[in-house]
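DOMAIN: structural biology
WANTED: fold as C-alpha cells
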Amino acid sequence: MPIINRIAAFADEMTAWRRDFHQHPELGFEEVRTSGIVAEKLRSFGVDEVITGIARTGVVGVIRGRIESPHAIGLRADMDALPIEERTGLPHASRHPGKMHACGHDGHTTMLLGAARYLAETRNFAGTVYVIFQPAEEGLGGGREMVKEGLFERFPMERVFGLHNWPGLPEGVFGWRVGPTMAAAAQIDITLTGKGSHGAQPHLGNDPVVIACQIVSALQTIVARRVDPVRAGVLTIGHIAGGDTYNVIPEVVRMKGTARWFDDKVGDQLESETIRLVSGIAESFGAKAEVAFRRTYPATVNEQESTELARKAAEAVAGPANVREMPDPTMGAEDFSFMLNAKAGSYIMLGAGRGPNSPGVHNPGYDFNDAILPIGASYWASLAEQILAPT
C-alpha cells in the first residue's frame, strides 16, 4: 500500500498525538484543549494562517501551494468526544470519567494534522488547501454553526471533503458512494403525564408506564405500515424513565428516541405520524402527552464529480482493489451534511478492520486503529495534490 514516505516517517508521532487526544476527550463546544493543541501544531508546521474561535472552538488552517492559483479545497475533521464511560482498559484510556473518544474523532483530527504537516512541508500543489477542524459533530451541529459563521465566505473553496473511520470495512479499504450516504436525523422527546398511585391500587391512578409501553409498540407500525416499503425509515425509542421505587406508579414518564430517513417526505411522515400516534394513545388512556420532534441533521448527500475525485485519490493510496463502492447508505447521521448542502463535496469511509466481533463506534469498548493513521493522512495529501495539481 503506497503510503506517502514522508508521512510514514512520522507515523509514530501521529500515534502519540492520537493517544494524547484519546486520553483527554472533550465534548461538543468544549474542545478547548484539543483545538489549542491543533492550532499550536499547525503553527509549528509552518501553516500560512491559523484561525481559531470559529463556532467557538473550531480551527481553520490555510496552506498555500508553491504556485499561485484561485483554486482551493477544504478538508474537514471533527474533534469532539462522546458522553460515554470508557471500558477499554487500555494504557491510553480516557482520564475523564463519563467522556470518551468512542467514534474515532481523535483519529480523524490526527490524520488531518498529519496531512497538514506534509502539505505545509512540500506544497506540491497550485492554490490553497483549507484544513478544517470542526467542533461538536455529535448531535450539537458544529458543522451547521461553522457554515452559519461564514466558513465558505471567509475561506472560499470550490469543494469540501470529509472522512470517517469505518470498523465494518477491512483495514485500509476505502468505501465511497454517490448520492445519499448517511441519513437525516431527528431527536424525539415525549413527556407523558398521568395520575400516580400506589402500585397495589392501580385503579386509583392512570399509569403512564403502561401508556409508554403501548406507545413504543405502536410507533413501530409507522415504518412498518405507513411508510412506503421501498423508502427507508427508522424510528427508535432509546430511553424511558419514570418512577423511583418498586410499588409506586409515577405521575410522569419521559421518553427519548430518534428518527432517520433520506427522503424529506418520509421525514415529514415520521414526524406527523409520531405526534398523531403518541397524542392519540395518551388521550385514549385519559393522559396527556407532550411531543417534540426536533430535526437535527439533514441527509449527507455526495456530489458525483467530487466523489470521483475522492475515489481517485483513495486509489492512489490503497490501489483500485481496495477502493469499493458502498452498495447501500447507512442510517447513521453526520453534520458534515450542512457543509455538503452549502458546497460541492464528498464524504467517504476508511476501513478500520477490527472484525465483526470487535466493538464498533459509540461503544465503550471501541478504540481507533492507529494503523490507519498514515493511510488517512496520505489520502488527504493525495487528494489535495491531485485536485490542485499544477497545469
The longest helix spans residues 264-284.
